[in-house]
Amino acid sequence: IYDLGQEGEDFYLAMEYIDGEDLRSIVKQCSSRKERIPVEYVIRIFIGVLDALHYAHNQVDLEGRQRGVVHRDVSPHNILVSFEGGVKLVDFGIAKARTEISTTLPGRVKGKHAYMSPEQCLGKELDGRSDIFSAGIVMYELLTWTRLFKRKSDIDTLKAVVACQVKPLRSIRPEIDPELEAIVLKALQPRPEDRFQTAREMQLALEDYVLRKV
Could you give the angle at which helices 128-144 and 23-32 cross, rounded to 10 degrees? Predict the structure, then answer.
């Protein structure tokens, strides 16, 4: 948001304009053309997503204290790719900072069910590792071109996330590099302590992978 104000009786927000498409739209276009997003593009997109998450997770208040911001809705709808190649993570509408008062009831689940972490489905307290899990889901789906946890009903989807039975990517798409598969599967570990501990850690893992493979 660049500015906010009032013009006559109307209030307005002046926001950044992003000339591009969200990942959901890009996937639909690719599907209609029977194409997939190239692996190198998927990696590039998620380096940008993780950079954005690192920035959000490390926000501080006016006194320099960590705010503990968690996006809580990392999904294809909220990842924008500009026509110039930029990546933006948008819609922090349900993001929560631990240092702020919230009216959310204990155990209330917010977010898109198929892209939640197990702890989010269970209504537990979240930190940035939940967003890393969600990013892992989206990356898994773009690389394998399959839905990971989506089921016919919301309750079945939530159960699938909590059970967290993840097929190896190479069992679906054998040509995927084992090193890349290992990065994605680490992000999708059921226990937060077994995942990448920060978005920057996963971002650097992807960047190192790219450097070694170029």
Answer: 10
